[in-house]
Write a structure and sequence with these properties.
The chain has 410 residues and is an alpha/beta fold. The chain has helices at 59-70, 106-114, 123-136, 156-159, 166-171, 180-194, 247-256, 260-269, 272-277, 283-291, 295-319, 329-334, 336-343, 355-358, 383-409; strands spanning 2-8, 12-19, 24-32, 39-45, 48-55, 84-91, 102-103, 142-146, 202-207, 213-218, 221-225, 324-328, 365-366, 375-378.
Length: 410
């Protein structure tokens, strides 16, 4: 079964074509700078990569570029678009309406549009891209896989804010959490590696990238997660401030003359390790600056690691212990230095990193010493594969429902 996976942002679109039976990636690529004059298209098959300038394109045209590449006579991997049996879309925000992936029918699309006011930075781009795909692939099933769905098991004491309950009942102000597709994949992959059932494990998954979050997963269900009503809450990130006293926003406005929108932009795009270092949101740049003796770069890394450590400690307490702590995403997978700093002075969980394993080139690995009570791991995330798996599950579920209805009619 051939599945097309679409991950759309406001100005970018990433795509993969997978054989869901073998889980092989047939081709992948991206369209960057959508809506800008210097749009860029890329397409990769095996070791061959094609890149070209495409000028100013919209989301529908971006999808068109991806589809045309897949059936190109010279380098395409399928003969026609009918070979695509379903399209799986990453949808950032499903609100409280979706606890699992769903077919993107008219009723679901209405809910996505209704949720735009609680996800104004994310859902509009997802909706535009879904509609574009529906026009170009009108007879192919479309499935929405929601970043927020995995976190819908958080209990009320975990998802509610301590503000008047009417704010939740009337306006749905609550913790939603994000990166759910990644945390879900990593939790299940960890269970496979450890040869244990995920329902019997207490896991802390650390998705550390330009956007970062930590999630407590107890017996297969999310107990808590660091991101909240929006992805701004939680850890210090590349450009996001993470946890702050909310009255800082009012103070900033009064002191600087910023508008509310400018203040929110300040916290979302000019803060985090970029704001502390004054250099970059990229940890590779910060590492080079630290080597050259830059104290602010070192402070930014230390602050980031301290916040991760603090959330890990809190989630160990919340779950009554932990069996495995897992690092994933760009920083989590590729920075042994960050992992080392985080685990400095964490001897209270009777766990130490194995330096050789931590710095090895292996992608998927256990990095704790064999005598450690808690297993520490690096597990590369694979959101596209998770979306493909979910898409197959939804399609099979719908197909079985249709078969059952047909048999009942007979």
């Amino acid at each position: 079964m051939v599945i097309l996976v679409i991950n759309a942002g406001s100005s970018s679109l990433k795509y993969q074509l997978l054989n869901a039976d073998t889980e092989e990636v047939l081709a992948k690529g991206s369209v960057e700078r959508i809506g800008m004059d210097n749009g860029m298209f890329s397409y990769k098959i095996n070791t061959e990569k094609i890149e070209k300038d495409i000028g100013n394109v919209n989301h529908q045209q971006a999808v068109g570029y991806a589809l045309d590449a897949l059936i190109n006579k010279e380098y395409g991997v399928i003969s026609n678009l009918r070979e695509i049996k379903a399209v799986g879309h990453r949808v950032v925000h499903g609100g409280e309406d979706f606890r699992e992936s769903n077919m993107l029918d008219d009723a679901v699309m209405k809910v996505l549009n209704d949720n735009v006011d609680i996800a104004p930075l994310h859902n509009p781009a997802n909706i535009v891209c879904i509609e574009a795909c529906k026009k170009l692939l009108p007879d192919i099933p479309m499935v929405g896989v929601f970043d927020t769905a995995f976190h819908q098991t958080i209990p009320p004491e975990g998802y509610l804010y301590a503000i008047p309950i009417e704010a939740y009942k009337k306006h749905k102000i609550r913790r939603y959490g994000f990166h759910g597709i990644s945390h879900n994949y990593v939790a299940n992959r960890t269970a496979e590696i450890l040869n244990k059932e995920v329902e019997k494990l207490r896991l802390i998954t650390c998705h550390l990238g330009n956007g970062s979050s930590v999630t407590a997963i107890k017996h297969g269900k999310v107990l808590d997660t660091s991101m909240g009503f929006t992805p701004l809450e939680g850890l210090a990130m590349g450009t996001r401030c993470g946890d702050i006293d909310p009255t800082i926003i009012q103070y900033l406005i009064n002191k600087t003359g910023m508008t509310l929108d400018e203040a929110i932009n300040y916290l979302n795009k000019k803060s985090g390790v970029l704001g502390i270092s004054g250099i970059s949101s990229d940890f590779r740049d910060l590492d080079r600056a630290v080597e050259n003796g830059d104290e602010n770069a070192k402070l930014a890394i230390d602050l980031f690691c301290y916040r991760v450590k603090k959330y890990i400690g809190a989630y160990i307490a919340a779950m009554g212990g932990v069996d495995a702590i897992i690092f994933t995403a760009g920083i989590g997978e590729n920075s042994p230095e960050v992992r080392e700093i985080i685990f400095n002075d964490m001897g209270y969980i009777h766990t130490q990193l194995d330096e050789k394993r931590n710095y090895s080139k292996d992608k998927e690995k256990i990095i704790s010493r064999k005598d450690s009570e808690v297993t520490v791991m690096v597990v590369p995330t694979n959101e596209e594969l998770m979306i493909a798996r979910e898409t197959v599950l939804v399609c099979n579920k719908i197909r079985n429902q249709h078969r059952l209805k047909s048999s009942n009619v007979i």
